[in-house]
Design brief:
The chain has 358 residues and is an alpha+beta fold. It folds into two domains: 204 residues, CV3147-like fold (3-Layer(aba) Sandwich); 117 residues, CV3147-like. Helix content is 31%, strand content 28%. It has eleven helices and 17 strands. The strands form two sheets. Strands 1, 2, 3, 4, 5, 6, 7, 8, 9 and 10 form a ten-stranded mixed sheet that branches. A seven-stranded antiparallel sheet has the order 15-14-13-12-11-17-16. Helix 1 runs antiparallel to helix 2. It is globular and about 60 Å long. It comes from Marinibacterium profundimaris.
Length: 358
């Protein structure tokens, strides 16, 4: 069943997207501002079930590409993503009839609401990741042989470009190179697909789940409770660690924010240390002795240990108290195809993927 999203829902949506975004997907506050302005001016957005879309309808994901750290300083106006969508529609000679959220990330889970409000198009209840991943080909659509191109890319200066590539990995390489030249971040319309393709490939119910997670966070905070326990109960999650950040190494290279964070344990984790490695998103959580506790494609989600708010990789700083929760990924990611696409081996780690809780 579909439902209506108003500007008042965006606080919960931004929080839920930031939590599922595993530290990436962009600053949720920026995306919330974009969406709130669009909904205030153009009205609410309809979120519809995948099965409500006609098989021959053109469905298009819209999103940001680049280093989340860049977006903190270079706010998109909203015109960039509309230009990218218009360029794609012009090339295809067909108008989009529904929009798709490509990933559950802070900025990328709210940008589609802004585009939906401005265009009047419905947003499908689902996405391509069920979390956030750093590279463009790391979506369920790739596992179903849906091409990322034609892809339209637009920046804040008015530049735009259109790609046609031999496969989705090449799309990532070429679009990333252009994104770096565009200043490290760009807005994208890509993976154009039919309604029939969308129904077989999308991870269903993500937009509803994002909202529910955000509502849980807000409800817990209203009762002066930390939301971690309630979220773990609802998501079959695992409490990985609670501690204070004692060291952060971060560099923006090749269009990614890469680095490691060292956390020193408190409370039940007193005397222990955890290392978390990230590339835009948290990828690996391991003990100081090298034991992997949670690994991509499963989710490593961070909350401020005091306030219970989601923490993104660009917000990590010395002295911050964080609570880390592991969440099982969608079953599609735990298949051989999913692990090949976004498992530890792809990122250069030498351990085999071991499912959380398995």
């Amino acid at each position: 069943m579909g439902y209506t999203v108003t500007a008042e829902d965006l606080d919960a949506i931004a929080l839920g997207g930031a939590f599922l975004g595993t530290g990436g997907g962009g600053d949720p506050y920026i995306g919330k501002l974009m969406a709130r302005n669009a909904l205030a001016e153009h009205g609410p957005v309809q979120v519809i079930d995948a099965d409500e879309v006609a098989d021959d309808a053109l469905c298009v994901p819209v999103f940001m590409m680049g280093a989340p750290t860049v977006m903190v300083e270079k706010l998109p106006s909203g015109e960039e993503i509309l230009k990218a969508l218009a360029e794609l529609e012009r090339f295809l000679g067909q108008k989009a009839q529904a929009l798709i959220c490509v990933e559950a990330g802070g900025l990328n889970s709210t940008i589609p609401y802004a585009v939906a409000a401005i265009t009047g198009l419905p947003l499908i209840d689902g996405d391509g990741m069920g979390r956030a991943f750093p590279e463009l080909q790391m979506v369920s659509f790739t596992m179903h042989d849906i091409a990322a191109t034609p892809l339209a890319l637009a920046d804040d200066k008015g530049n735009s470009t259109l790609f046609s590539t031999i496969d989705n990995a090449w799309t990532e390489r070429l679009a990333r190179a252009v994104t770096v030249q565009m200043g490290g971040a760009a807005l994208v319309a890509a993976y154009p697909m039919s309604g029939a393709q969308m129904k077989t490939s999308i991870l269903r119910g993500t937009m509803s789940l994002i909202r529910e997670i955000g509502q849980t966070i807000l409800a817990s905070r209203a009762k002066s409770e930390h939301p971690g326990p309630a979220l773990r109960k609802n998501l079959n999650g695992t409490h990985l660690f609670t501690g204070r950040v004692v060291d952060v190494e971060r560099a923006t290279t090749g269009g990614f924010a890469r680095g490691t964070v060292k956390v020193r344990g408190v409370d039940d984790f007193q005397g222990q240390e955890m290392i978390v490695r990230f590339q835009n998103e948290f990828l690996i959580a391991e003990t100081a002795g090298g034991e992997v506790l949670c690994s991509t494609p499963d989710l490593i989600c961070a909350l401020d240990a005091d306030m219970g708010m989601p923490v993104t990789t660009e917000q990590l700083r010395y002295g911050l108290m964080i609570e880390l929760t592991g969440v099982p990924s969608d079953p599609q990611w735990r298949t051989p195809a999913g692990i090949a696409l976004a498992g530890p081996g792809y990122f250069g780690y030498d351990h085999e993927f071991r499912p959380l809780g398995g």
